[in-house]
Design a protein that fits this description.
Elements lengths: L3 E5 L3 H15 L6 H4 L10 E4 L2 H10 L6 H6 L22 H20 L6 H13 L19 H4 L5 E9 L12 E4 L3 E4 L6 E4 L7 E2 L2 E2 L12 H7 L5 H4 L9 H11 L10 E3 L16 H4 L4 E5 L10 H4 L7 E6 L12 H9 L16 H6 L7 E3 L15 E6 L18 H14 L11 H16 L6 H10 L56 H14 L3
Parallel strand pairs: 1-2, 1-11, 2-3, 11-13
Antiparallel strand pairs: 3-4, 3-10, 4-5, 5-6, 7-8, 9-10, 12-13
Helix pairs in contact: 1-3, 1-15, 5-6, 5-10, 6-8, 16-17
Length: 557
């Protein structure tokens, strides 16, 4: 069976809601997904990665017992509705100032309790507690005691009824503020957190974060800390870009007693810590089991500082899914970035990940050739699904044959999905409109723009296996690849209004170059210690059913 990954980009609630529609189109639990969508694809996926707003989506689904977008939509008007974002996160009670005051009082108490227990706090702690009420409304105080590692004990996870979820954040070295393509990229999964990058190349058990360790062993023998891996905190870690939004708590637009409360628990957090999540004690302190090129700035510090996973301008969490050890055949890259002046994607995330393989952190990565962002826009590749890396024989100069990338950008169909990243409240109708438009963006308008799109996705899914077996595909697949695969055409005429994403431009130094640049990579990555890189989805019956549909359409199998 082909091994499938899905990567959900950042972009605030826009990415969460539009991405939800795209995910819903792949889920056979969604009404109409089997007739007008890619139903069953999600059931056949092995990995599901999220970053920032995309991680709000993936974490919501995974840590609500693998609920479906359909179930969330069906429960929209209920008092305990998931994603009830009709009011800003700053004023969750709307005109009910007492509800808002009570909420922030609880958040203040929760964050203070962490500090009283001896742990460092930052705005990420506040942000995580605030977010959690929207994602886990049925849990006491938004899941104040709910931990990331809890998922590995859930039946839906143990029985492989869901993909393996991954959250992505960037490392920031102590005393620095700049994030670029050579930043250390961290992943969180239900078992571990750590990095595949050469600057660390190590993982630690996520359950025991907060334990004071030296060289991976507890300083106090036999004593470990549990509970640091709060689900809201880790979810917030991947989206610390929004910490600046919390600074508005001091706004005079809030009732005075709420503003005073905000000032009280934000007053001790310095400006240069606004965008970080603090992981201390540092789980990698004084580790001597790392490779020789590990960065001393990580292992010598008492603190591990992590920031929003998109701050290196790789706003689609592709790197964890590109690891050769994970052996993926295909990745569906859902891009809900706001790269243009009008808040549409322009392909910059793909370009930056392509370029990373030629930097020191990407020595062990392979990513298929992609064009520059001007070409993305000029050829309209940012407005419809496009396949990259279709022909493995053209990729032999790379470190290894990478997965085929199915790029699915946010585009307008039935609703204006290009909402601002910092739009922090949506009415019920807006919420449903965003989800519906995302469904349509990932299905060529429910196949109205191309009735063969489902079959073409099937061709893409089995492409790597077909080429490795030197098998022959039917003519229909050849037509699909002609229509959807980027053929190498470049049109780099300058386009105005692009390259203006949510993150610092410091990371996008190469975003205009795309495949026009070349470089070399070397040194195979050793196993990073993640015992679960080969996690395999055992529940393949549904996906086999999808391939059977494709067989009926094109005679593929």
């Amino acid at each position: 069976m082909p091994k499938v990954g899905v990567a959900c980009s950042g972009g605030g609630y826009r990415a969460m809601l539009s991405g939800a529609g795209m995910i819903a189109a792949m889920d056979n639990r969604t009404d109409g997904a089997n007739e007008h969508g890619l139903g069953g694809l999600l059931q056949g996926a092995t990995y599901l990665a999220g970053l920032s707003g995309g991680n709000w989506l993936t974490s919501t689904l995974a840590w609500n017992n693998w609920t479906s977008v359909q179930a969330i939509v069906d429960n929209t008007t209920a008092s305990n509705s998931i994603w009830d974002i009709s009011h800003s996160i700053l004023t969750p009670g709307g005109i009910n100032i007492f509800k808002t005051g009570s909420r922030w009082d609880d958040i203040s108490d929760d964050v203070q309790a962490k500090q009283d227990a001896g742990f460092n706090i930052s705005l990420a702690d506040v942000w995580g507690r605030a977010l959690a009420y929207n994602f886990w409304p049925d849990l006491y105080r938004g899941g104040v005691g709910y931990t990331w590692s809890t998922l590995r004990e859930a039946d839906v996870f143990k029985n492989a009824e869901m993909p393996f979820p991954i959250s992505v954040a960037d490392g920031r070295y102590p005393g620095t503020t700049v994030i670029n393509l050579n930043a250390t990229l961290f992943e969180f999964n239900p078992f571990e957190m750590g990095s595949w990058d050469p600057t660390l190349n190590a993982f630690t058990d996520v359950k025991y974060l907060g334990t004071n360790v030296t060289n991976g062993k507890p300083v106090n023998k036999g004593r470990c800390t549990a509970g640091f891996d709060n689900t809201g905190f880790i979810t917030a870690t991947s989206s610390t870009l929004f910490n600046q939004f919390l600074l508005q708590l001091n706004s005079t637009g809030l009732p005075s007693f709420i503003a005073d409360l905000a000032a009280d628990f934000l007053s001790d957090i310095s400006d240069n810590s606004d965008d970080i999540a603090i992981y201390a004690p540092n789980p990698f302190k004084e580790a001597d089991f790392l490779q020789k090129n590990a960065t001393s700035g990580i292992i010598e510090s008492d603190y591990l500082f992590l920031v929003d996973g998109g701050e290196d301008n790789q706003n689609i969490p592709l790197v964890p899914l590109l690891q050769q050890e994970r052996e993926l055949d295909i990745i569906f890259a859902l891009d809900n970035s706001a790269d243009t002046n009008d808040y549409w994607p322009d392909g910059a995330s793909l370009v930056n990940t392509y370029q990373r393989q030629f930097h020191s952190q990407g020595l062990n990565l392979s990513f298929p050739y992609v064009p520059d962002v001007n070409t993305f826009v000029n050829l309209g590749l940012n407005k419809k699904p496009t396949f990259f890396g279709c022909d493995a024989t053209n990729l032999t100069d790379l470190e290894y044959i990478p997965p085929l990338i199915v790029y699915i950008p946010n585009s307008r169909h039935s609703f204006n999905g290009n909402q601002s990243t910092f739009k922090m409240s949506y009415s019920d109708s807006e919420r449903l409109g965003m989800i519906k438009n995302g469904f349509e963006a990932s299905t060529m308008g429910n196949f109205t723009d191309d009735s063969d799109f489902l079959g073409c996705v099937g061709c893409a899914i089995i492409r790597r296996k077909q080429q490795s077996l030197n098998a022959t595909l039917p003519a229909e697949c050849s037509r699909c690849f002609t229509n959807y695969c980027w053929n190498g055409t470049i049109d780099n005429r300058s386009v105005s209004g692009i390259g203006n994403g949510d993150y610092s431009s410091s990371a996008s130094i190469s975003a205009s170059n795309g495949a026009s640049s070349s470089g070399s990579s070397s040194t195979r990555k050793q196993n990073a210690g993640n015992a679960f890189v080969s996690y395999s989805n055992l529940n393949t019956n549904t996906f086999i059913g999808v391939l059977s549909v494709l067989s009926a359409v094109f005679g593929l199998i």
